[in-house]
Amino acid sequence: MSTNYRPNASAATLTKNRTEGSTSPLSGMCVTCVEGCVGMCEIGKSAYRGQETLYPQPFGIMTTASEKNYPLDYSHFSIMGTVIGAQGIDADSEKAIFSAANLERKIGRGEGIKVKMPFVISGIGSTDVARNNWEGLAAGAALSGTMLTVGENVSGMDEKTVIENGRVVNTDDLKRRVELFKKWQKDGYGAIIIQANVEDSRLGVLEYALDKLDIDAVELKWGQGAKDIGGEVKIKSLEKACMLKKRGYVVLPDPENPSVVDSYNRGGFKEFERHSHLGMVEQDTFMQRVEGLREAGAKNIFLKTGAYRPADLARALKYSSLAGIDLLTVDGAGGGTGMSPWRMMNEWGIPPVELHSLLYNYCEKLEGKGHYVPDIALGGGFAFEDQIYKGLAIGSPYVKLIGMARAPLAAAMVGKTIGSRIEKEKLPVYVERFGKSIEEIFVTASELKNELGEDKFNELPAGALGLYTYYERLAQGLKQLMCGNRKFDLEYISRNDIAALTREAAEVSGISYITDLDKEEAEQILDI
Fold first, then answer.
1. How would residue 231 be classed by pLDDT, with cut points 50, 70 and 90?
2. pTM over 0.85
3. CATH superfamily of 74-228+281-528
């Protein structure tokens, strides 16, 4: 394990040890804990802020991921290359260039959904950081021809949502999010997906979206990699806390308790916690729910599950097979965009390599018995083209997409910030060296302006330029890696394209250890 992991102090909880260079590896406490310390560490801060210290801070303007160094990760695999042949294109040096690699594919059964790149933004929900950056996320994902998921609790958190007889009949925020994506969607590529948890299902959010927002794709949510409980956010307003309790959420402390209200008004605490209920998975009810959504008009039905124990992964895959789910997203432990409890984020669940390896084995077993295997998306800290390639390879041929959230959100946030700095003429030096205007700084801006026309380009949020430009980098990088393996279409990526760098990685994943790779073929070549 990395010695960089400090379980009693972290930037995520705004804590640090007094003796930063000398801490106990067992507890994370300072080797000498002295009377008179004001409590800079996580234990100390917990002594006066209690449960607030469970969560990463500052809430609403950041995303968080585990800082635990797992025994295995995708860096323990290396991408191979070859000097012979080509798949998906003529084996001709004039034709087999990386720019000719095809990243388009279709997701799901039937007509499905066509995407220009194998990326999906997985579950950007009701947190402030998601809502405040939605313009960039929606426009950028749509222009890139990729899929974007509206995460859980968006309608339930919206004060303007109209609920009649316990069901949503109108919701401004969800409507805004859908319309922004559709405004920038091109040639039918990509899709906006609406996700639902327990509360969303009770409120009839998916049925509302299918009926009123012309949605084709919906996603049921069992969980995520960041935590093994329901979603949570912090609420500063007493009125909103009461509203959310009335809508069926778990709100702590109880905003209707007079002593709690008195403490809040006196400044004893400044934020309420809003939590979602746990889902209770049963095969029959799951099948009924999927069938009900189809009857309500859903053309594509997805399921997202988290880093739960192996039996639950098997359930997710089997139920998806039986129900004819179009896409199953499996999210490894360690990351998140919301307010997951910090220790939980670091210490629960199956990490990505192990989870994705189990998933491949289960898919192979299911297919071997003649059963339908849904398209698969993998999540769990993916950010760059090499990781994306390895994820597609380790799960081939079942894995069709890579799910990301923090990285695309970071790109959108940076784009938005640069746009704001341009308007205020306060660009930092390391950005200003590229220029002072949108077209000078964003390398894809001129191309997009020519494609969209000046008027529409001028409407484009700077955050969208950030995401679009980031995706273009990923696309070219992925094409280059495909070209090196002589794979010019995503369908040809295989497990043989990567090799394990450690025996442990080989044992867990079933991927060949690097010096065992091609052993028989190499011996045949040398047999002269």
1. confident
2. yes
3. Aldolase class I (3.20.20.70)
